[in-house]
């Protein structure tokens, strides 16, 4: 374990069933308890976290440009095969061992429970805002969907100094978007009059919706040379109208999390600008109930599992 560190898990963001009989997850945070002899970045007692990935080839073009998340040999934090052929099991445990390259330092002023979801949802929205140049103060940015990704996208865009409009099918989310999250405007995507009035006003749109939905109305909201960035992953192909792209030199792109360097940059930025996700901390014995609530969309906006206190409470 020369380049590995061991850390005691405190918090684990979110819940997901991926490959039965596993129940595993990423976005893990805790405190370093031991370091290998060649570890240089961390010492015992540091606040750290591991996000979506735990390994890559370190030799491809993507890895050489700090884009490990696009490496063809990417190793996910859970439900994947590690270099030695063993299964990666994520964060449902009391300790975790990780290569220091894949460990993120959690800033002192970022609480562990708030920091955990940033290691996935945070970097997933931060990276495209930066890469596509949608982080300039005064830009008008649309956020489609107000869920786990959408709510933190609003916060990052506002922290960049952008004007933010939330685009949703649900009028009931307007108060949440504008009064609680600080969005400047709210559009109901099913309201043709509202959508028509906003045509050609946005520099970029971050689309977080994974359900099947039409892209033409969103493309219409963009200014010339505007950019629509897809983060959601619908289970069927979406129809992409080409003519409106040609007429406005508009771009449709995608993005997947971020590399380790950018993830550290993201959480440092979040700590500096007080960007924190809205979470609900739960104990491990609440997971079944949490799964039922997730199926109903009854969470604002991330469950975070308190492993440390759950295990402490279970000791006789």
TrEMBL record:
Keyword Transferase: no
Membrane-spanning segments: none
Entry annotated with the keyword Electron transport: no
Sequence ranges assigned to domain Enoyl reductase (ER) in this UniProt record: 10-305
Cross-referenced CDD domains: CAD1 (cd05283)
Origin: domain of life: Eukaryota
Known cofactor(s): Zn(2+)
GO molecular function per UniProt: metal ion binding; oxidoreductase activity, acting on the CH-OH group of donors, NAD or NADP as acceptor
Gene3D superfamilies for the chain: Medium-chain alcohol dehydrogenases, catalytic domain, NAD(P)-binding Rossmann-like Domain
GO terms, biological process: lignin biosynthetic process
Family: Belongs to the zinc-containing alcohol dehydrogenase family.
Protein name: Enoyl reductase (ER) domain-containing protein
Protein source organism: Vitis rotundifolia
